[in-house]
Amino acid sequence: MNKTYIYVNKDEEIGDVIEKIRGVKSKEIILVVPEDSKSFYKAINLEILKKEIEDLKKDVVINTDDSKIENLARQYGFDIFLEDKEEKIFDVVPPKVYDYSQKIKTEEKNDLETEPTSSYKVAEQEEEINKKYKKTSARQPKKQTNSSFLNFVKKSLSSIIIFTLIGGFVFLIWQFFQAKAEISINIQKTPFEFNEVIILKTDQISPDVKGKILPARYISFNLNKTETITTTGQVFESTFPSLKVKFLNYLDYEFPLIAGTRVVYQNNVFRLSQRIVLPKKENDKPGEVETEAIASEIKNNQLEIQEGSDLSIPGLEGKRNASEQLLTDFIKAKSSKSYTISQSFQIRSVAPDDISNVKERLKKSLENSILTKLSLSYPDSFYIFDPLFAKIEIKNVSHNIGDKTDFISANGEAFYETLVVNKKDFDNFIRDIINEEILKSSKKLSIYELTLDKKEILDFDIKKKTMSLAVSGKAVLIPDLNIEKIKADLAGKRIDLIKSYFANIGGINSVSIEILPSWKKELPTDYRKIIIHSIVK
């Protein structure tokens, strides 16, 4: 089938080109487009041209030396001459710009009307036209052949440029998504001291910051304790040493043992020299009292008793309590130290200071027990222990002044009542009081650290169950920064604007900025890619 060339003028509109294609009967057309043809630089024109060609059902091949037109045409699905259609063109028919045969016939008709024209003259004219036709037909393929190498070079360079541009674009996109910024803010600290009087009330419903009144809870408890010390009185010589005995009480109530109570080991009898009271069981632990028993009837002069040996209490055998329980099942006696009889030994006596010392030791022990009870039973509460509010009673001392014994023990009870507050509630209450002072100063500050140095009970009204406390301490204040707002404000800003932004906030010593990639001079526009670190020194 014949292919037809259509030559496009440089300034020709796309509508004129379409009209030329419509005027050609051939289905296969080679469209020759010169360089700098403005109509073919527009994508919309090529889109219109492609649609018209498809409607006309024609096969159009673009032939051009303009790489830009060639690339754009390829994008819209046009075949490129000598690239997509590698065929020899021997049957290409150039477009008939002028119908010479019609002109010959017209001239022949006119000559016949005027004067006869010889057949030789007509043949001569036809031969001249055919020569021109052959020159045009033969010249065009040669031009295409010579330009094929140049087209190849241009296409290669175009491909390299395109890939370079695409690579650069991809790199820029990658850098954009990898972009992030880290800002480190060195924040200034402001010291703040406070000294407040706070009222705790059990009938208060909610905290009153202005009145400095805080709701509290009333608690009370009893504790029992026994303490033992070594006597320091006059030393006596004796044939048999006293036995160190530990009594254990597994009952839920106190149990007394009178002076002279016997404890026996393998028929060897020892007696208590003083009355003692065994504390009741607490938290599944038996009440304990350690005392001395004086040798009364020793059957074995070589007697040895190991530490922890069980001792019987004859006075309790067969006896029952109000619940019909055998007392020997609940009252136990053991040797608290190893015992050996020797030829002679020394035994001390109770001095006057021993009585006062054991009482003082018992008092201190009960006070420490109160603190231990508070810390273990109320670990999440704020409380203040004041010994003046502890009611301590010494119930019994095992010996009197002058008694022969190496040890003396005392038994006592403590009662304590106070008000407690949840630690978090108390801490928040102090913070709220400080924040009220900050608001009065019209400064945008927040509490960074809080330390209580002094906590003292000024007054405790037991009937009303109210307590006034003196509380003092120190706080560290820092600028109140809204980090999310700062990130939103700084997104996309240049570095020079960032430093001036922080300078206007106040309370900031220095700012360091790190931006990735390093060549960027502004923060990411996405605030989520901005990280801010607050450093307090």
The number of strands is 28
Overall form: elongated
- What's the helix count? 9
How much strand? 25-35%
Mean pLDDT over all positions: 81
Straight-line distance between termini = 89 Å
Give the structural class: alpha+beta
Low-confidence stretches: 84-146
Our Rg estimate from Cα atoms comes to 57 Å
Order of strands in the sheet with the most strands?
A: 13-14-16-11-19-18
Largest sheet properties: 6 strands, antiparallel
Percent of residues in helices comes to 25-40%
Which helices and strands, and how do they pair?
Layout (H helix, E strand, L loop, with lengths): L2 E5 L6 H9 L5 E6 L9 H14 L2 E6 L2 H9 L3 E2 L11 E2 L6 H15 L4 H60 L1 E8 L2 E12 L11 E3 L1 E14 L4 E4 L4 E7 L5 E3 L4 E4 L2 E5 L3 E3 L8 E11 L6 E2 L4 E2 L19 E5 L3 E2 L4 E4 L3 H26 L3 E2 L7 E8 L9 E16 H19 L3 E17 L4 E14 L3 H8 L4 H9 L4 E9 L13 E7 L1
Parallel strand pairs: 1-2, 1-5, 2-3, 3-4, 6-28, 7-8
Antiparallel strand pairs: 6-27, 7-26, 9-24, 10-21, 11-16, 11-19, 12-15, 13-14, 14-16, 17-20, 18-19, 22-24, 23-24, 25-26
Helix pairs in contact: 1-2, 4-5
Description:
Helix content is 31%, strand content 34%. By secondary structure, it is an alpha+beta fold. The model is unreliable at 84-146 (pLDDT under 50). Helix 4 (100-114) packs antiparallel against helix 5 (119-178). Strand 25 (445-461) and strand 26 form a beta hairpin. Among the domains are: 3-171, no CATH class; 177-188 and 481-536, no CATH class; 240-343, no CATH class. The protein has helices spanning 14-22, 43-56, 67-75, 100-114, 119-178, 352-377, 423-441, 483-490, 495-503; strands spanning 3-7, 28-33, 59-64, 79-80, 92-93, 180-187, 190-201, 213-215, 217-230, 235-238, 243-249, 255-257, 262-265, 268-272, 276-278, 287-297, 304-305, 310-311, 331-335, 339-340, 345-348, 381-382, 390-397, 407-422, 445-461, 466-479, 508-516, 530-536. It is elongated. The protein has 9 helices and 28 strands.
